[in-house]
Amino acid sequence: MNRSEALDRLSDSSESWDIIVVGGGATGLGIAVDAANRGYRTALLEQADFSESTSSKSTKLIHGGVRYLRSGEVGLVRESLRERGRLLRNAAGIVKPLSFVVPAYRFYEPFFYGMGLTLYDLLAGDLGIKSTDHLSDHETLKEIPNLNPDGLHGGTLYWDGQFDDARLAIAMARTAHREGATVVNRVRVKELVKEAGRVSGVVAEDLVDGNSFRLKASVVINATGVFTDSVRKMDDSQSSDMIAPSQGIHIVLDQKFLGGETAIMIPSTDDGRVLFAIPWQNKMLLGTTDTAGVEPEICPRPMKDEVDYLLDHAGRYLVEKPTLLDVRSMFAGLRPLVLPNKTSGGATSKISRSHSLTVSDSGLVTMAGGKWTTYRQMAEDAVDCAAEIGALSFQPCSTHDLTLLSEENEKGGEWIHPHLPYTSEDIERAVGGEMAVTLDDVLSRRTRCTLLDANAALEVAPAVCQIMSQMTGAGADWIAREIESFQQCALAYKEPTSQSESSVESEGS
Ligand SMILES: Cc1cc2nc3c(=O)[nH]c(=O)nc-3n(C[C@H](O)[C@H](O)[C@H](O)COP(=O)(O)OP(=O)(O)OC[C@H]3O[C@@H](n4cnc5c(N)ncnc54)[C@H](O)[C@@H]3O)c2cc1C
Q1: Which of 356, 403, 401, 396 is nearest to 380 (CA)?
Q2: Residues 368, 229 share a domain
Q3: What are the tens digits of pLDDT across the range 150-168?
Q4: Atom in ligand 1 nearest the alpha carbon of residue 289
Q5: Is residue 406 part of a domain?
Q6: Considering 295, 321, 336, which residue would you say is the last residue of a domain?
Q7: For the domain that residue 200 is a member of, what is the CATH number?
Q8: For the chain, which terminus, N or C, has the lower number of CB atoms within 10 Å?
Q9: Whose CA is nearest to atom 41 of ligand 1?
């Protein structure tokens, strides 16, 4: 995957595309894989880095969503569990099974959770991982040594999937490229081009060198997450908003606060929210929140009240209680929730996590909402629709069994920092074959240094920048600019913004 080759293809005005995908998060990348795999000439344009927006800030679970059973969304759970099974097979190096314990602090909870999670297993059918088990107090504490034993009534152990979201995004970009798509980051769609009232292409700008170019396409797909409405307004400035962004944050702590390799799932804290404490890359992820009333942005910042909420609740369930001083990193993402009625407001936690496919009068196809877990199904639906709208010869979807490219197992060599499990080969691969342009691309998404330990990432930044500049030939000015810009960016992972006006509303991922 080479950026300048991709740009050469894009700026070749003789080229006409079957499908242009706007947006390189989970949704857009999934669509590019599917469309290219069906043989359509496909281009994908991402204004920032692949997955830089929401898709690198998730809870990192490939899951059916136990809590959706409570809201009766059985269809969504069944679909997600089916996709979970496929991803465990098709992206085996990146998506792995993970055990969770739901601890019980009321006598009836083991029975209640046992029933719900057995239904969860049944809905997974042949694609299930392992069966749900009841655990005694002793067995529960063996799984989660730092769990508060006071008042414990055992626990329920169940299985779901876990992944590295930004690495899966890169695997998808590389797979789309392998299947023949042209994918590129740091290229923004500024305008939609129309002929006879139909969308027939885009005007895009390379944000690295400022060059603009015009691309023709049979159909354009808007896959821009929380930015969906801005692209819909390029098509029809009068269109009403369909997305209600909702912020969710995570904090990263040392794994000793969990004590083992099993995650904790609190289905309903005493104020009715879901809380996950998850082992990830030898750290513990704690999340999440659901804060409504936020504006779309690529790198939102955690708010102090969100961080306090997570620390306070973790303290209720753990013996050794984490404080702000223990936080190694924190990150925020925005859920692209689709309003049931485009003009209505209301609590974001009540909005369904299922996806929405719409086609405008001028033929702009928009795929929005959904979850990481269901990206493949979303892509299948979007490409089926795009083929019809763009009058392309119909080719059936065959991504159900398509193995995604992955290099997750190629590890070895000296770590770049005692707290960061990456080597100089990881940096070289990021720049040489994974289209990393900035220091932040390398430290936050090709590797996950900034998410694992923001201070360690800052310490290693100059050395990583040196490796990058040796590969690209960039000079001292570039190094100075990149380090300064990364220092600004890392701030968002180090400290929350002050108390927000908006309230922390409800429920988890
Ligand atoms: C806190 C949190 C936790 C979550 N946890 C989970 C989980 O554990 N499991 C799960 O399955 N799901 C989870 N989700 C949901 C999942 O992360 C999202 O549904 C998914 O990442 C959305 O992907 P997307 O591609 O639609 O949006 P995005 O990732 O936002 O991608 C859209 C892209 O479009 C680009 N773009 C916008 N405008 C333009 C333009 N004009 N030109 C070019 N590019 C443009 C943006 O830069 C952006 O990169 C979570 C979400 C949040 C917020």
Answers
A1: 396
A2: yes
A3: 999 999 999 999 999 999 9
A4: 1
A5: no
A6: 336
A7: 3.50.50.60
A8: N
A9: 189
Ligand 1 pocket mutation pick from 160, 235, 371 by most atoms within 8 angstroms of CB: 371
What is the 336 CA–ligand 1 centroid distance (Å)? Answer: 7
The total domain count for the chain is 3
Residues 238, 248, single domain; the answer is no
Q: Does the C-beta of 227 come closer than 6 Å to ligand 1?
A: yes
Tell me whether the omega of the peptide bond preceding residue 423 falls within 30 degrees of 0, making it cis.
Answer: no
Q: What is the pLDDT of residue 68?
A: 83
So what's the pLDDT on residue 500?
A: 52
Residue 147 shares a structural domain with residue 289:
yes
57 C-alpha to center of ligand 1: Å?
Answer: 8
Q: Looking at residue 353, what is its pLDDT?
A: 64
For a mutational test of ligand 1's pocket, the pick from 34, 47, 50, 54, i.e. the residue with the most ligand atoms closer than 8 A to its C-beta, is 54
Clarify whether residues 171 and 229 are in a common domain: yes
Q: Is 52 in the pocket of ligand 1 (CB under 6 A)?
A: yes
CA of 500 to the centre of ligand 1 (A): 23
- Relative to the CA of 30, which ligand 1 atom is closest? 25
pLDDT in the model for residue 95: 97
- Is there a domain that residue 181 lies in? yes
- Output the CA 333–ligand 1 centroid distance in Å: 8
248 and 325 share a domain?
Answer: yes
**336, 371, 402 - which closes a domain:** 336
Q: Does ligand 1 come within 6 angstroms of the Cβ of 438?
A: no
Residues in the chain: 509
Q: pTM of the predicted model, to two decimals?
A: 0.95
Domain match, 226 and 351 both? yes
> Are residues 256 and 146 in contact, defined by beta-carbon separation less than 8 angstroms?
yes
Q: What is the mean pLDDT of residues 211-234?
A: 97
Q: Is residue 430 part of a domain?
A: yes
Q: Whose CA is nearest to atom 32 of ligand 1?
A: 224
**pLDDT tens by residue, 423-477:** 999 999 999 999 999 999 999 999 999 999 999 999 999 999 999 999 999 999 9
Q: What Cα–Cα distance (Å) separates residue 364 from each residue in 231, 232, 383? A: 9, 8, 12
Kindly state whether residues 327 and 353 are assigned to the same domain: no
Residues 332 and 344 in one domain: no
Is residue 227 included in any domain, yes or no? yes
Cβ–Cβ under 8 Å, residues 190 and 215: no
Token pair listed for 6: 């991709």
d(CA 354, CA 345): 18
Phi-psi region of 39 (alpha: psi -120 to 50; beta: other; left: phi over 0): left
Averaged pLDDT score across all residues of the chain: 93
The answer, yes or no, to whether any atom of ligand 1 lies below 6 A from the CB of 426, is no
Least confident span in 58-72, 77-91, 326-340, 387-401: 58-72
Q: Which atom of ligand 1 sits closest to the CA of residue 27?
A: 25
Domain that holds residue 271: 96-162+244-336
Task: Say yes or no: CB of residue 45 within 6 Å of ligand 1.
Answer: yes
509 has pLDDT over 60: no
Other Cβ atoms within 10 Å of 248 Cβ, number: 26
pLDDT at 351 over 60: no
